[in-house]
């Protein structure tokens, strides 16, 4: 997961320092998260929003967001459900 977070930060063209500024924390805190330290529950959704939902709450903290769509804004969750409905129509 942590390599996934590092990769997604890079893919978004962001830096750990930039994310830290947006959250209001020292860069070292974000570095610790990217290197395997647990992200506090109170920061998960904030980090996902900064990352424009390219990383999900489930990816960051599956212990508190056990389902892949848990914690997603309704737009993302509804879109995921619509996709499943369409796929299920083709495969009864």
From TrEMBL:
<dbReference type="GO" id="GO:0003677">
    <property type="term" value="F:DNA binding"/>
</dbReference>
<protein>
    <submittedName>
        <fullName>Antirepressor protein Cro</fullName>
    </submittedName>
</protein>
<dbReference type="InterPro" id="IPR001387">
    <property type="entry name" value="Cro/C1-type_HTH"/>
</dbReference>
<dbReference type="InterPro" id="IPR031856">
    <property type="entry name" value="YdaS_toxin-like"/>
</dbReference>
<dbReference type="Pfam" id="PF15943">
    <property type="entry name" value="YdaS_toxin"/>
</dbReference>
<dbReference type="InterPro" id="IPR010982">
    <property type="entry name" value="Lambda_DNA-bd_dom_sf"/>
</dbReference>
């Amino acid at each position: 997961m942590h390599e996934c977070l590092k990769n997604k930060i890079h893919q978004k063209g962001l830096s750990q320092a930039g994310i830290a500024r947006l959250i209001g924390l020292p860069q070292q805190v974000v570095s610790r998260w990217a290197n395997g330290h647990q992200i506090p529950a109170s920061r998960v959704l904030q980090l996902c929003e900064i990352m424009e939902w390219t990383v999900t709450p489930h990816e960051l903290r599956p212990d508190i967001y056990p389902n892949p769509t848990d914690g997603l804004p309704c737009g993302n969750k509804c879109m995921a459900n619509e996709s499943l409905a369409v796929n299920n129509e083709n495969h009864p």
